[in-house]
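Anyone else keep sequences and structure tokens together like this?

Example one:
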Amino acid sequence: MRAQLLGAAALLAVAAVPAAAWAQPATPVGLWRTIDDATGQPKSLVRITESGGVLSGRVEQVLDPAKADSRCDACSDERKGQPVLGMTVLRNVRQEEPGQWGGGDILDPNNGKVYKVRLRPEDGGSRLGVRGYIGLPALGRSQTWQRVE
């Protein structure tokens, strides 16, 4: 009887632990719908991948058919004049602390500017807070991307 009570108590203790405690932490890896911070409209699909602890993101689809063949004419690095479709726009990002990635950079192909970047999964990983900045994180702009897969 005592063993049954201990077994039942253990079962209750395990059941009381939220499922989120066993869930893997949200990660930026996946396919994301980028949302323009000025218009609120979807712009592209970016796939973020991880290799050796380093994240990178590449444009898989430009959602505006009129801009599908656009090139990064304003870029000043090796991406100058290259098609935005297929372009790596997120580079060298690493996990800085649980739930936050940074240390790399993000390119805005519309103006060719490269910003330092911070990524923070939100809402259990269904959204991604993207902060591009120059110097201090307070000097920048934010977008919220939506997970596609």
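And example two:
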Amino acid sequence: MSIGTNLRRLREERKLTQEQLSEKLGVSFQAVSAWERDEYKPDTDRLIALAGALDVSVSALVEEKSGLFKTRQAIYDWEHMKTFLKTTARNYRLPDTLRAVDYAVEAHEGQKRKKSDIPYIYHPLNLACHAVSMGITDDAVLSACLLHDVVEDCGKTLEELPVSDEAKEIVGLLTHLGGKGTEEDRKAYYEAICENPKASLIKCIDRCNNLTTMSWGFSREKIYAYIEETEKYYGMLLKTIKGTVEYGHAAWLLKYQMESMLDIYKRLL
């Protein structure tokens, strides 16, 4: 596809008129129209500005094969993950996990993942399935995976969660009401998590899941910030996990997944 074709497609996907895009760029709408008709190509500075205005990479504008591949926002159906986790909870006799599945589904009802129509419950269910796939069937870990966002995002309190005190403690560590605030707040948040291997494990699984979805859920600015935050803080969480005998294999897999995705994003950005 040409630059003009890519530009028009990306503009229309964002429901922007040529006039609206031209205002963002400080150019005439006739210039945008000419670019889209491939009458002439925007110079390098304009390409960078266009990429920023449309929240895409420059390569997304100039790539001739743009749109060649079809992408998916959800790999697994959340209803299937729910059934899988409830079956796992029954088989391994995990009462907290069994209660947490339905509680999380109800608490997150109506919520969507950023910039998508994917039900938010897909995210906590994915975390718990990720843990099970690594051979982790600890009731506190799985139930905390499922409930890790309900206090922060659903107006619930730790006291009302239908799980053990250990699971509540983990959820409390993972909860940061009002965002992470200053860099000092962020540092204190991660250092507290680092003291708890189970909280560290869940936070790393959470980061892996968010890294896999940030290409369509985050702005370019947020992606840059997320990469920097991951490199700054997740090494110490992985060290905590690696130092916990039963999580040694999980530490390797999580590190590999995070570092692989970070490298891919860096190359594409």
